[in-house]
Amino acid sequence: MRTRADIECWLTDMDGVLVHENRPIPGAAALLAQWRDAGTPFLVLTNNPIFTPRDLSARLRVSGLDVPEDRIWTSALATAQFLKSQLPGGTAFVIGEAGLTTALHEAGYIMTESQPDYVVVGETRMYSFEAITKAIRFINAGARFIVTNPDATGPTPSGVVPATGSFAALITKATGKDPYVVGKPNPMMFRSAMNRIGAHSENTGMIGDRMDTDVIAGIEAGLHTVLVLTGISDDAEIERYPFRPDEIVASVADLVRKEPVESDLPEVL
């Protein structure tokens, strides 16, 4: 059976694994440094499509973690890559922020409000009745419905707020059309990430803090899965599911390779 020693490339979730409320999780900096020093290909994944990789790299740097922007893979980037593969040079009506619109522009897509090929819904803090109404009408007129990620709510310091999945459900109710969701738990998110770093499922591991997205998508993508307990999962949460990750560890600190300690005592012959 495959073990951690067989893993040559790593994918890791960000929130709950490397950071928590903009504070680094103990061991995260050491693990990232270990990968850099060893030349290990890796990507930091997030379902949040709001921010560009440059934004997220800067956010992580403030938290004390050095992750170059080319080591970050978002659901917005995965969505843009998927649309480019489906219909190069297409058009889209987009509900989202800079992370999504930038990714689509860079993929060669045109943003339009005139007979778009796709309606793409992502995360935004400024959902409007007008934009949702337009999305519904475009879908009813034949535009294909794409959603970056299925998360129904998102965390804030003052409590949860409705997120992409909630507004996608509203559009589905009004149109009778279910979206194609690109982000986790769709294993396509992981496959597109592996393509980005030239990795193969046989030698790639996924580190996450959620059973319902990170672990299940990792299993379906054929990866070695590691669940950390620094996010939302605990023993009770794990027991809710009929599947298990390959490993369960307290935190990413448990994945940092320990250097042997040299003894000052003389060797006994």
Automatic annotation (TrEMBL):
Details of cofactor binding: Divalent metal ions. Mg(2+) is the most effective.
Any one Gene Ontology cellular component term annotated for this protein: cytoplasm
UniProt binding sites for substrate: 184
Catalytic residues identified in the record: 13 (nucleophile), 15 (proton donor)
UniProt keywords, alphabetically: Carbohydrate metabolism, Hydrolase, Magnesium, Metal-binding
Binding sites annotated in the UniProt record for Mg(2+): 13, 15, 209
Classification via InterPro entries: HAD-like_sf, HAD-SF_hydro_IIA, HAD_sf
GO molecular function: metal ion binding; phosphatase activity
Origin superkingdom: Bacteria
Keyword Glycoprotein: no
Statement: the UniProt record of this protein carries the keyword Magnesium: yes
Pfam families per UniProt: Hydrolase_6 (PF13344), Hydrolase_like (PF13242)
Cofactor needs: Mg(2+)
Family: Belongs to the HAD-like hydrolase superfamily.
Protein name stated in the entry: HAD family hydrolase
Organism: Microbacterium ulmi
Lineage: Bacteria, Bacillati, Actinomycetota, Actinomycetes, Micrococcales
